[in-house]
Amino acid sequence: MIKKGIGRQIVLHYFIVIFLALMLVEVVFLFAIRTYYYDTIYNMISSHIDVTVRSALISTNSSDYSEEEYLSQILSLLKLPESELQILDGKGDVKISSSGFEVDKPVQTSDIPQALASGGTAKWIGRQATTGEPVMAVTTTLQQGGGQVYLARFVTSIEKVNQRLTEITLVSMAVIAAVLVTVLIVSIGLANSIVRPINNIIAVSAQMAKGRFDVRVEGDYRYELGEMGSTLNYMAEEIVRSNQIKDDFISSISHELRTPLTSIKGWSETLDSGGYDPDETRLGMGIIAKETERLIGLVEELLDFSKLQQNEMKLTMKRVELKELLKEIVLNVWAKAELKKVQLRVEADEGSFAVYGDANRLKQVFLNIVDNAVKFSHESSVIVLHLSREDGWVRAAVQDSGIGIDEENLRRVKDRFFQVNTQGGGTGLGLAITQQLVELHEGQLEMTSELGVGTTVSVKLPLLEEPAVEERELELPAGPEQGPEQI
Q: Is the pTM of this model over 0.85?
C-alpha cells in the first residue's frame, strides 16, 4: 500500500488516466468488432437478395401458378443455407417458411414496416419470440401483383457470433487487466523515483532547519530534482560561508574597535590622574583625537554599508570633473604616501573628463582605491592614476606595483567582510561599498592583479556629454600648482 502523499497521487492519477483511455479504446474496439461481424452477415444476405430476387422475379410469373405454387417456387429459388427463409404477406403473416414450421401470429418486428415503407431491404436484430435465440432478420419486398404484396424474410442465428464477440471481449479485458497491472507497477516505480529523492531532500532540509549546514543532498538526481538538490546544497554552502564571514567580521570589528577604545581609555585615565607636563598632555590628547577619528571612520563605513544594503543611500548628483577630483585625492593621501616614499602620479589625455554623479561619494570611491594601493605598495614605488575616454565612457585606472593578489582571492576581494590580509586591519567592507557606489553611478568596477607584480583597479563611468559653452561655465577651478597632468 502506498503511503499518502505525492506518490499516491501520482499513481492514482496515472492509473485513472490510463484506465479511462483503455476503457474508451475498449468500447470503440468492441463496437467496431460487433459492427463488423453484423455488417458482414447483413452484406452477405443483401448480396444474395440482390442476385436471386431479380432472377426469381424474371423466371417466375404469379399468373402462371396458384398462390401456394408461386410461393413455393419463390421459396426454392431464394433459400439460403443456414438461414430460415419466410415469405410474408403485407400484414406480416407468414405464408410459407423454409423450416416447415407454421407461425400462428403475424411477425411484428421493425424490419417489416421498414421494408414496406421503403420498398427495399430492412434489418432487425433481436431475440426469436418462440425460442429466445438471438437472430438477425433481413427483409426485402418481392413484388406487387394483383394487389398482393409479398416479403422475403431471411432469419439467421447470431448466437455463435455473439459467443465469438464474448470471447473477444474477455480476451480484450484480460489484455486491459494486464496493461493496468503493468501500468500500476510502472507508476509505482515512477512515483518512487520521484518521491524518494524528494524525501531525501526534505530530510536534508529538516537537518538544515535545525542548524546542521554540514549535511548535503547526496545522489545524482536528474532534471528539476537535481536542480533542487544542487540549489539546496549551494544554499547551505552560502550560509556556511556567510556565517564564517559574519564570524570573521565580528572578530575583526571587535579587534578594530577594541584597539582605539583601549588607547582612548588608557590615555584618558592617565590624563585624569594629572601631574603631566603640557607636552605629554598634548601627545595624549592627540592620540585620543586620532583614535576617535578612527572610530568615527569605522562607524561611518558600517553606516554606509547598511544604507546601501537597505537602498537608502541618497546621492546628490551634479557635474563632476574627474581630473580635478583625482588631483584632490592625491593631495589627501600625499602625507601617507610620503611615509612609504610612494610617488603618486596623475596621467590624463587632453579635454574634459566630466561625469554626472555625487562628488562626495565618488571621492569616497577613489580615496578607498588609492588608499589600498598605497597600503599594499612597496617602498619607493609609483602609483599611476590614469584617465582615458572609451566610446562614451571615462575610465579611471589606479595602477600600483605592489604585492598583488592571487587569482583565488581576486575573485572574492569585492565580497563584503572579506580581507586578503586579516592582519592589516579594517572591516573588509571598503571594496564592497566601493563597488555598490560605482554601480549606483551606472558604472563598472574592474580589477586585474598578479601576485608579486601589482594590481590595477579601473572605474568606468558614463561620460557626460555637454555643449562647450556650458562646460566653460561649469568648469571647476584648477587645483594647486603641481603641473597640469602630474603630481
A: no
